Amino acid sequence: MVFTLLAAAIMASIYYNSRFGGWSMEVDTAQQSVAADGIVATGSLEHNHSYNNGYGYGALLAFLSYLSGQSIQSIQLFLAGSAVIVVLAAFLVYRELLESSAIAFLAAILLLMQPDFMFYVLRGSHESVTWTLLLLMVFLLLRGSDYRERPSRFVFFVLAFYLLCWAMVAVNVYFSSSVLSAFALALVGGWLIKKMIKNQRVDKEGTPDVLRRLVFIVSIGWLLVFLFITYIYEPGILYYYTFSEMVDRIGILFFGAQPLGQPISYSYYENAWQSRVAYLSLTGLQWIFVVSSFITWLIGLRQIKSLAGKRLLLWLFYSSFGVLLVIGVVVDFAGFLNTNLQLRLFTPFVLFASPMAALLCAHLFERLCNQSRRRILLPVCAVIVAWGLLASALKTTNDPILGNHWFFYHDGELKAANWIEEHIQYQRIWVDTRPHLAETFHFWQGYEGLSTNKYEFKKNVWSPPTYTLITALTKLRSDRVGEILPATNDKNLIYDNEEAQLFHRRPETSFQK
Predict the structure, then answer these.
(1) How do the domains of the chain map onto residue ranges?
(2) How many CA atoms lie within 13 A of 317 on its CB side?
(3) pLDDT over 80 at 305, yes or no
């Protein structure tokens, strides 16, 4: 069972890394790379390009780079696709929550089949570490409650829990505060249920012990967040301004008349995929699992008087992260920084939605699967799993067969960037219709080689840049989605390597270059 799970996770990681031969990039990976490279270059956790939400992931990359002698970029590309660690941690937690290895295995497989979760843990950003830490914290919380009568072991689990909690805060203080908010909601929900139904099974199965520990966890956790932001990591002070703006935006949404617009993610499939059918075919199973988890939640709500122990905790964690996801949707519609918060909060929600969906799937299979139906149901389930894993891989990489939002780039584009850096300084250069190429260049330039030029990716009709870079991949993608690229017929071609051409605006006066 574990070997099968490992094989599936390894295959997902290998596919993600090899689909474009390692030539893929997105915004967060580039930002984390520059931040980590800055730690190596300056010898300090804080520098001009520090990651505002925490230094943990950058420090990990810098440490591994120091040990191995490899560049930050090489280490980061190697770590990208670390789904194996996340999925194994999830399996350990699910086995504790569900008290069944078989259903835990099914829940972990469902996790691999959800592309909007896999993308965030496969790319070279902090989230694979962040959510692994969350899973390990939940594991220590659950397993530690089994040793409350053995103080020496119980203290070990408590200390390990808070050590991981501090690590999560250091990696990303924003997501850590979200996790602590979810724990707080679970605490409130658990005590309300206990007071309302007075369930004696809850007392017998140790749930109040975990709920009492959540009081300390939330209190100490928020103290760690406060200390980290206020006294330990100066760039983290931006958290206060971010939170303040979030509240202001939500206030405008509910009490103001200002039109707020629609977040990018809600119209995502319209321009990022060949068709709605393509998008839904790749994500359909994911939404079926989400609906299944909600059905399980409704069943649990109906049977709330009989819920106790770890099943009740699973129900509470699912509820609390579900509330945060709803808040994320509200914040996104409020136009908060246009960050598509609901997609980011979907990741921890899925961690607890998968075991909820697995419970319903296991129940239905048990009800439907007699001896005569087993010959039909087992092959059907195998086909569904195979398609789910394939669809997840295609969606995670935004495969150009179906997708228009490409992450891959070409060696010719990097050669053009190198030429630009050797011959041009302190100039504005248009490079693409989106930030993809600019972030790719920043990733490979690193902290010390960070460009003095300003790479632009939005069309500015009032003040067009002096230089325009047009690449073969940019042309292909713009033709597919119907985007109009800047005109180059009035510009001089000053560089051409067949894959990329750089144009210079013709001087209109003797004072222009």
Answers:
(1) 2-396, 411-505
(2) 31
(3) no
